[in-house]
Write a structure and sequence with these properties.
Layout (H helix, E strand, L loop, with lengths): L6 E11 L1 H4 L5 E12 L2 E5 L8 H7 L2 E2 L2 H6 L10 E3 L18 E5 H9 L6 H4 L5 E5 L3 E4 L2 E5 L8 E7 L2 E7 L5 H15 L12 H7 L2 E6 L10
Parallel strand pairs: 3-5, 5-6, 6-7, 11-12
Antiparallel strand pairs: 1-2, 1-4, 2-3, 8-9, 9-10, 10-11
This protein binds zinc ion.
The site of zinc ion has 6 residues, from loops.
Length: about 230
């Protein structure tokens, strides 16, 4: 069984979210994080970094990239060590390194892949349908390795998914971009708990799947764009 120490985080760069997307007058620098799970059956990588985009997207987000090989090196791994890949979703800042992992099975929701292939401007198509791409299309919650589950967490995109790792010393949720920040997750968790405790309405509405995630009693929840970590109080 995996231990929480078998899960490592790597940094694959930053981008600058412009004011039009932050809902404020200010831009916001966001980090791009990926995660590896060293499982007895193989090394799983969740998300692969920021892909090369068109000039307009580059100017809009001003990405600073750390090559995937370099990021993996910081956790003692190389591209060749990666056996399995999952993408929380297929925007260009999450699947940028997928072409470097050609031939490796890539777990994603069927809905997400269909969306990426049909909506113009959704992502960079070459990052999704590259030579050697090998998608394992999932329809909902799936155990992809013993004690490693992919769970749909739609919202940011229709096919967004998170990875849940049942470790010997607690459950870790690699939430991807289910929430932009750990504090957003915390707010939704508190809303669920308040409703469960019978606090009178009105209460904030949290996504349906928050109930399911919290029922797993996570010891730690980690995110794609926030180095902050949620832990239960
Ligand atoms: Zn993102």
């Amino acid at each position: 069984m995996v231990a929480t120490d078998d899960i490592a985080r790597l940094t694959l760069g930053t981008f600058v979210r412009p004011p039009a997307e932050t809902g404020t007058d200010h831009p916001r620098v966001e980090v791009v994080l990926a995660y590896v799970v060293r499982h007895p059956n193989g090394v799983l990588l969740l998300d692969t970094g920021i892909g090369a985009a068109d000039d307009e997207t580059e100017a809009w987000y001003r990405p600073g990239r750390i090559p995937l090989a370099e990021g993996l090196h910081t956790v003692g791994l190389s591209l060749a060590d990666v056996d399995l890949v999952a993408n929380c979703h297929l925007h260009f800042d999450h699947c940028g390194g997928n072409p470097l992992l050609a031939g490796r099975p890539v777990f994603c929701q069927r809905t997400e892949l269909a969306t990426a292939r049909t909506i113009d401007g959704y992502t960079v198509p070459e990052l999704v349908d590259h030579a050697g791409a090998s998608y394992q299309e999932l329809d909902g919650e799936t155990e992809i390795l013993p004690d490693v589950f992919v769970m749909p967490t739609p919202g940011h995109t229709p096919g967004h998914q998170s990875v849940v790792v049942r470790c010997g010393d607690g459950t870790v949720v690699l939430a991807g971009q289910s929430h932009d920040h750990a504090s957003d997750f915390s707010a939704d968790a508190l809303a669920v708990l308040a409703r469960r405790a019978g606090t009178a309405e009105p209460l904030p509405i949290a996504p349906d799947w928050m109930e399911r995630l919290l029922a797993l009693d996570p010891r730690r929840v980690l995110f794609a764009h926030d180095a902050a970590v949620w832990e239960p109080h």
